[in-house]
Amino acid sequence: MFSQQFLDRIYEAAFIPDLWKDVLDTMAERTNALGTVLLGMTDVRQRSIASDTLAAFIAQAPKWENINARSQLLVTLPNAAFHSDADHFSEEAMAKDWLYQDYLWPLGLGYAAATHIRVPNGDTLILSVERQRDHGPFERTEVDALTALRPHLARSAMIAARLEFERIRGANQAMQMTGLPSAAIAADGTVIDCNALFSALSEQILILAKDRLQFAHPAASTLLALSLERARSGTGEEALASRSFAMPRTMHSEPASSISCRSGEPRATCFPAPPCLSW
Question: For residues 240 and 256, is the Cβ–Cβ distance under 8 A?
Answer without folding.
Answer: no
